[in-house]
Design brief:
3 domains; globular; DNA-directed DNA polymerase activity; about 600 residues; binds zinc ion; Beta Polymerase, domain 2; alpha/beta; DNA polymerase, domain 1
């Protein structure tokens, strides 16, 4: 259908952002897979033997899905893995032994830096990039944007006005986001940096600060506070691999790490460490409010952050809440929420198995969840309209339910709940007739197609789905992919109000690229007594761990375990679902 496109479900793990930096990371399967995938694309761009390029692409695909790290796999077995041939096997050993891949390095050397950057633009595969490069002689992002604006792309073979326009939009999106990262992409880097600098500079105090310390979901730079003069910090950090200095002033140094990530080091006197930590951690709005509340006098020379809050007559506000919402007045009234922590999550809600587009079998998913101490798994494969994700037709739903019944006997008291991630169709309807919807314990309703809607259309579609008595949870509310795609336009208040009126739970999708609903709307959802559900949307057993990122976002919104459906025990969830069905006159 014209004007529509399908969004591939997010099965992809997050990439390590500094490849080939053994100082920070070992060579894991993902890094090896990335290297093969990059090599295959570069070979295509250079018009090399496409059979060879394909074999590297298929090795990348195979390796990404391997259950065991290649570094822990006996060498002779590596060559027996299906999809890995003689030459790819040798390259793997080379990468494991030397952390290098000379063939890839060769192609990186003969490719202009601008072409490597252009490879990051969505909608441009290797063949199209080769055409742009060879026929228009474009070698940089700026030239490509210019060519789009001059309508030069649409004249090329395989392109058209529509492709050109979408390339143009994708370049603009990329340019506005290129030095920004998801928290999850830089979380390990930030924590390791803090540790590394503490060791390097001991006994000088060092702490993470700024947006990273507040667990912001998007990170523009990692900030660290160091109780030493700028000159000393400059001298010491210059010795670290990957660090290059870009700007200096009396109190700050700005660095680039691996030419990608901005690092800011703040310097202060040892006696001002806690005061400066306080001042550099809170958002501007928080600091302004703290001053307005009469707290300014207690900052300078403080012996700890706790002392600052105590002197100001407030409870301690943890860094992640210092955003300038209502936390200061709550802290004064001793009413800060006791926010949820990862161990409060009792079950996996929203997961996919290999019945649709997941990587693991139903039994593997359930067994892994049980082994990790969870009490239940809500399996919610894709519905039939999601044909690109192998969505389930009615006969397959019945077959899956039989498998779930058998597994529930085998794994008791662990329980698998029967669910479906039902596409919300264009007109707001769910994807099956009522008698099939009634067979699920719960239904997660999500939009996956035709995302380019006006707000009016998006709202009508969502509200109709929320009003459907079978909808238990509204999945990833705006469809946004952080730093990749804006969500469809929605009126958050109206959706939250509709969920409150219809007793529908709002998902906080925990995938670090979604974190959708945005945490800034959680206060309003709480005010309206809407339940939130921190859901990993796991497409493999590895996906469970995304719960940590959902929990961090929930903490920023002040969610407690009582406000979160996935904190319910198995019995609580079962009762909740039965009562809800009764309320909605659904036979159970
Ligand atoms: Zn989905
Ligand atoms: Zn899903």
């Amino acid at each position: 259908m014209p004007g529509s496109f399908f969004v591939p479900p997010l099965t992809h793990h997050l990439r390590i952002i500094f490849p080939l930096t053994p100082y920070f990371y070992g060579m894991d399967n993902y890094a090896i897979s990335d290297n093969f995938s990059l090599l295959s694309k570069l070979m295509d761009i250079h018009g090399e033997n496409s059979f060879k390029a394909k074999s590297f692409a298929s090795a990348a695909f195979t390796i990404e899905k391997l259950p065991t790290p290649l570094k822990d796999t006996p060498r002779e077995e590596i060559f027996r893995i299906k999809g890995i041939g003689e030459s790819t096997g040798k390259s793997i050993l080379e990468m494991l032994d030397t952390q290098q891949f000379p063939l890839l390095n060769h192609y990186l050397e003969i490719t202009p830096a601008g072409i490597l950057e252009i490879m990051k633009i969505k909608g441009l595969g290797p063949k199209k990039i080769a055409t742009i490069w060879k026929e228009l002689e474009i070698e940089s992002m700026g030239e490509l944007l210019y060519a789009c604006n001059e309508n030069r792309l649409m004249l090329l073979k395989g392109f058209g006005a529509k492709t050109q326009e979408s390339v143009r939009q994708n370049i603009e999106f990329y340019l506005s986001n290129r030095h920004r990262f998801l928290f999850a992409e830089v979380a390990a880097t930030g924590q390791q940096l803090e540790k590394q600098l503490q060791q390097l500079l001991a006994p000088i105090p060092v702490s993470l600060t700024g947006a990273f310390r507040r667990h912001s979901i998007i990170i523009d730079e990692i900030e660290l506070l160091i109780a030493a003069p700028v000159a000393i910090v400059q001298q010491q950090l210059a010795t670290l691999p990957g660090f290059s200095l870009t700007t200096t002033n009396d109190t700050n140094l700005v660095w680039q790490l691996e030419e990608k990530l901005k690092i800011i080091t703040h310097s202060c006197e040892p006696a001002q460490f806690h005061a400066t930590l306080f001042n550099t951690t809170g958002s501007t709005a928080f600091i302004d409010q703290f001053h307005a509340a009469g707290g300014a006098a207690f900052i300078s020379g403080a012996t700890s952050e706790e002392a600052i809050f105590t002197a100001a007559g407030m409870d301690f506000i943890p860094p992640f809440l210092r955003e300038g919402a209502n936390e200061i007045s709550l802290a004064r009234q001793h009413q800060l929420p006791e926010v949820i922590v990862s161990s409060d999550i009792k079950g996996i809600i929203h997961s996919h198995s290999n019945w649709s587009d997941g990587e693991s079998s139903l039994e593997e998913m359930a067994t892994a969840a049980k082994a990790q101490g969870f009490e239940y798994l809500v399996i919610s494969d894709h519905s039939r309209s999601a044909f690109y994700a192998n969505g389930l037709h009615i006969e397959r739903i019945l077959a899956q339910h039989a498998e779930i019944d058998a597994l529930n006997i085998k794994l008791a008291p662990f329980r698998i709940f029967k669910s479906i991630e039902s596409d919300i169709l264009n007109d707001g309807a769910l994807d099956y007739p009522d008698e099939i919807l009634a067979k699920f314990d719960l239904v997660i309703a999500s939009v996956h197609s035709n995302l380019k809607m006006t707000e009016e259309k998006a709202m009508a579609r969502l509200i109709k789905a929320i009003e459907n008595p079978y909808t238990t949870i509204l999945g990833h509310m705006t469809g946004r992919l952080l730093l990749s795609r804006n969500g469809y336009p929605v009126d958050h208040k109206a959706i939250i109000d509709a969920c409150a009126a219809n007793n529908v739970v709002i998902e906080l999708n925990a995938h670090p690229r979604r974190l959708d609903i945005d945490w800034t709307w959680l206060h309003y959802a709480l005010e309206k007594n809407v339940l939130i559900s921190i859901d990993p949307d796991a497409h493999s057993i590895h996906g469970f761990q995304d719960i940590q990122y959902g929990t961090l976002a929930a903490q920023k919104g002040g969610i407690t375990k009582a406000n979160n459906l996935s904190s319910y025990t198995v019995d609580m969830l079962n009762n909740y679902l039965l009562q809800r069905k009764q309320q909605k006159n659904i036979p159970s």
